Each structure stands twice: as structure tokens, then as C-alpha cells.
Amino acid sequence: MTITRARLGIVTIGQSPRTDLHQDLHTLLGNSIELMEIGALDGLDLKTITTRYPIQGKTDVLVSRMRDGAQVTISESDLEPLLINAIHSMQQRQPEVLVVLCTGELPDIAATHGPVIQPKDVVRHFFAGLNLQHLAVMSPESAQITNTRNRWQKAGFQCDCSYGSPYQEEAARYQASQELKNSAADIIYLDCMGYTLAQARQIAQWSGKTVVTARQIIFKTVETLLLNTHSMGSGRLLK
Question: What phi, psi does 90 have (nearest 5°)?
Fold first, then answer.
């Protein structure tokens, strides 16, 4: 008997493939996934991106990863047309579920084949469902703190914020963990799809708090959607 593999499409705001994601996908989803990836910044080098899309003076900053692991920053307004093109290209490949790999306030995308998961909505409803009043949030960069605080306060939370990038040295994540250790919040949310499960475990040890990644929330949602039609227990992860 042939077991068909669920087709998962991932669109990153940086570059594909997101090799930093593959091990965690194996942990969160099992093995029976056909993974398809595309990046909004595919085909561009870092120098071209920083020259063509400067972030100086902009407050809508997003952070992602280049193919070689380097961090890249771009504003939401500059990213939007590139991301929409990447999503349309992925939709033509007809994934059963499509995930936009960004927790920022990006425009809503209509589904043309299967569900389109935009983390901003799923994550917000997840924490609202926990009936929390206070949340500690770690973002990648200091330039994101104002928007992060405003976004979570608008969602009804008291919010303590700090920053430490998942794509750079651990020193900043350690410092952010120490700052959030003193928060009245019981949970630290890592507000970027780039934070790994290993980084979350480390931040939990440093802070003494429960740590939740966007990856856990989003890909467990993916698992629920795919479980209805596919066996998740066998096969291999395509990279």
C-alpha cells in the first residue's frame, strides 16, 4: 500500500530553503511530509537587498534569514509585493496547506487551493485562548520593539518586550532572557518563526519561565489540518 505524503508549502520572507527549520519540522510533524519551499528574496544577494530596500527611518521592520544563514532585514511595505509574488508561485504548486513564515502584520492572503496559515492570527488567538493578561515577548531586533508592544497591547495584553535575534550570536538572546526573567508574565513568547526549539529550551533555562515558539503553535496547527487526510507516521522529510 502506497502512503501519499502531505504537501506542505512554506513561503519565507527571506530565502529558501530554510534548513534551520527542517529538524524542527521533523520533530513537530513527523516524517510523512512533502516539503515545498520558496522565498520572497530568492535570487537576490544581501548587498542588493540592503541597497534596494534600505530600512533606515522605517518602523515596520521584519527580520529573516538568507540561504547561507545570514540575517536580513526589510520593511513590510517593501516586502509585500515580493511576498505576494512568492505566495502566488507556491499556490500554483497546489500545497494542501501553505504557511507564510512570518509573524508580522502582513496583508491577508486569499486561499486558492488549501488553507493559507498566517501566523499573526493563529498566534494571537492561541494566547487569547489561554486567558492571559500579561505576556513577555522576545523579538529579533530593537527596531521591532515599539510595533511589537503596540500589537500585543492592542490584542489586550500587558506586554514586556526585549530582543535577541535567532540568527545571530546567543549573547543577545541571553541578555533578553535576563531582562524578561523579571517580568510578571509566566510565559515568554518568541515572536519570530526563526526561533528554534533548541533556542527555546535554552531561553527557558536562562529565564526560568515557560517559553513558547511561533513554530510550535503554527506547525501543530498544520499537523491538525493534515492529519485528517494523511498518515503522519512514515515516509521521509524532503529538503
Answer: -70, -40
> Residue 93: helix, strand or coil by DSSP?
coil
Cell numbers that stand for 158 in this block:
500587558
Q: What is the mean pLDDT of residues 6-29?
A: 95
CA distance 16 to 239: 10
Topology (CATH) of 6-118+217-227: Rossmann fold (3.40.50)
Q: What is the pLDDT of residue 236?
A: 34
Q: Has residue 239 got a pLDDT over 50?
A: no
Query: Is 180 in a helix, a strand, or coil?
Result: helix
The domain ranges of the chain are 6-118+217-227, 122-213
Q: Are 62 and 82 in contact (CB under 8 A)?
A: no
Question: Do 221 and 122 contact (CB within 8 A), yes or no?
Answer: yes
Q: Which CATH class is domain 122-213?
A: alpha beta
**Domain 6-118+217-227 identical in fold to domain 122-213:** yes
- pLDDT tens profile 138-160: 999 999 999 999 999 999 999 99
192-220: average pLDDT: 97
